Amino acid sequence: MKSGQLELFSRHPEKYIHTIIQGAFEKLAESHHLSHPTPFPHFELETKEIATFGDFSTNAPFLYAPLFKKSPLEIAQEISISIQQSLSSEFKEYIHIEVAGGGFLNFFITPSGWARIAQKLSSPAPRKRFFKKKIIIEFSSPNIAKPMSIGHLRATILGNALVHLYNHMGYKTIAWNHLGDWGTQFGKLLVAYKKWGDHTVIEKDPITELQKLYVRFHEEAKDDPSLEDEARKEFNDLEKGHSANRRIWKYIVDQSLKEFQRMYAALDVRFDYIIGESFYESRLTPFIQKLLRSGKATTSDGATIVSLDSYHLPPGLIQKSDGATLYLTRDLVSLLYRARKIHPVRMLYIVGNEQSLHFQQLQAINSILKLTTIPFEHVSFGMVLNSLGKKFSTRKGDIVTADEVFTEVLAHAKDTQKEKQTNQSNTQLDQTAQTVSSGVIKYSMLRSNRTSNISFDFDSLFSLSGNSFPYLQYTYARVMSILAKAPRQNTARAYNQLTKTDYELMRSLVRFEAAIEASASSQSLHHLAEYLFTLANNINTLYEKSHILSDSNVATRSARIQLLTTAARTIRYGLGILGITVQEKM
Ligand code: ARG
Predict the structure, then answer these.
(1) Domain ranges of the chain
(2) Parallel, antiparallel, or unpaired: how do β-strands 134-138 and 346-350 relate?
């Protein structure tokens, strides 16, 4: 029993403290003859950034004072006394409690408590795997015949990081890409391709040329509405398997995929499945027929719809009167396909918040049709804006593509590399610049709350201070260079003479899993990014305030080196979850 508690305290001090507070509340409730559910109702234990308020703190007395008909201060004092009485003498040496601010309970870990924790401190590692816990994470899902947008780039980076996060937590992740390769717009593209396309030009830069053709279609269709009819016919032929149309479409898919794969390689992103919307084509008609037979869909003016009045949503359009199916139809069939093929415990869709109505409809229709009982969520995210808070556009006025962002950041990274005059070869420099660029872009997109819009400001991307990848990279390389100089001796480590700055660093180190939890429950990596930033700050403060390699006390020096080693590994591992590779040297 006691050793179990020690183990809990050493590995997860916050969990241990949470249990003793809970126990004290339960006892108090009993002595007041209050019936309460066990464990005692929920309260939060906060990790304090500033140690003057304790290492951990809770406002639980404020929450539950009314239950006991006492003031928060009285409850806090009673709880504090009760905890002190129940602590064994060993734990009394490790934990110190204070009542503050009219009813807060602040917990301080003493130096001997930290020394205890330090002995068990280990570098982060993946949790135990549960192979039955499969999770499908759909992300990126760009549209063919168009360049990948900066919004798709955010989806790609966020989804990839969530894959790493859930892998760490022991899930079997399935990275899914729902390529936009089907729909009436391809009828338009086919018309334009056949009328104005010049293959020798297209071949040189397919995506740009196809994009131009698509724009031209819309311009010409303003004056000649018959083009729209032609487009419908072309798409119809494509659906029926018309060989010329299939061939052109296949060419477009292949060229687009090639482009996307280049971007995925640069970002070090992999998928288990890349399944375009076209894949579901043959399943659509049977699905719609079954739907009609079930009586849950109705026809209105020749179109098939599912009424969503009871959900206060506009009706879900399943099939248009001309027979065309929709984005929504393919998502319904794909949902069913994913559920049956993979049998996951959960499915996530990492898609921008402008599609939230679409996903609300998908949820509502699924509830009506009962396609699957496996929970699925739209993990939405905000827009990427320029530094002025406006929609991103180039000088020509079009939306900035993922490629343009990468090119710009890469150019900057190369300049910075060259200025450094290292003795790396040119290919090595290019390689480094690639890795750094991808880290810079990823970090700048992950450090903000998922749901907020982010402003992407090229000028500030490379700033060495503040919550940025270059700052973390710099900190990591700095620690590594110190560690490289540290003597390799197996001296005993002494944690009893460390300083406040060392404990601050330890406070960060024990919080790694809490940061993971916060990121997982909000599906937002900014908690992890902020955690890494605080950790880096604590490393740098330690570096500035203490003699790391020159400490005359060998055992203390050895202990500190151990802490810094764990800190460096935590930075590397944490960045790894964000999908970022850190360089050993700068
Ligand atoms: N291709 C779509 C777009 O770019 C995103 C697809 C999102 N995923 C989904 N299952 N609907 O707008």
Answers:
(1) 3-109, 404-577
(2) parallel
Block residue for tokens 């209105």:
300
Between the CA of 557 and the centroid of ligand 1 the distance, in Å, is 54
Q: Are 529 and 510 in contact (CB under 8 A)?
A: no
pLDDT digits (tens, 9 = 90+) for 231-265: 999 998 998 889 999 999 999 999 999 999 999 99
Q: Is residue 460 within 8 Å of residue 447, measured between CB atoms? A: no
Whether the full predicted model's pTM is greater than 0.90, yes or no, is yes
Computed from CA positions of residues 243, 245, 247, 249, in that sequence, does the dihedral angle turn out positive or negative?
A: negative
- The CB density around residue 577, as the number of other CB atoms within 10 Å, is 26
**Most informative mutation of 332, 351, 353 for ligand 1 (most atoms within 8 A of CB):** 351
Q: What is the CATH number of domain 404-577?
A: 1.10.730.10
Question: Phi, psi (5° rounding) for residue 352?
Answer: -55, 155
> For the stretch 441-464, what's the b/e string if a residue is b when 16 or more beta carbons lie within 10 angstroms of its beta carbon?
bbbbbbbbebeeebbbeeeebbee
Q: Which residues contact 292 (CB under 8 A, 6 or more apart)?
A: 299, 304
| Residue 62: HSE in the Cβ half-sphere, 13 Å Cα cutoff | 11
The answer, yes or no, to whether any atom of ligand 1 lies below 6 A from the CB of 349, is yes
CATH of 3-109, one of 3.30.70.1050, 2.40.50.140, 3.40.120.10, 3.30.1360.70: 3.30.1360.70
> Under the phi-then-psi rule, with left for phi > 0, alpha for psi from -120 to 50, and beta for the rest, what region is 371?
alpha
Residue 490: which of 551, 566, 568, 561 has the closest Cα?
561
Please give the distance, rounded to the nearest whole angstrom, from the Cα atom of residue 347 to the centre of ligand 1.
15
Nearest residue (CA) to ligand 1, atom 4: 142
* 176 within ligand 1 shell (Cβ under 6 A): no
What is the per-residue pLDDT across 72-127, written as a single tens digit (0 to 9) for each?
999 999 999 999 999 999 999 999 999 999 999 999 999 889 989 988 888 999 99
Distance, in Å, from the CA atom of 543 to the CA atom of 547, rounded to the nearest integer, reads 7
Structure tokens at 444: 């700048």
Are 172 and 179 in contact, with CB atoms under 8 Å apart?
Answer: no
Tracing tokens 């992300």 back to the chain, one arrives at 139
Report the amino acid identity of residue 308: L
- Please name the amino acid found at residue 46: E
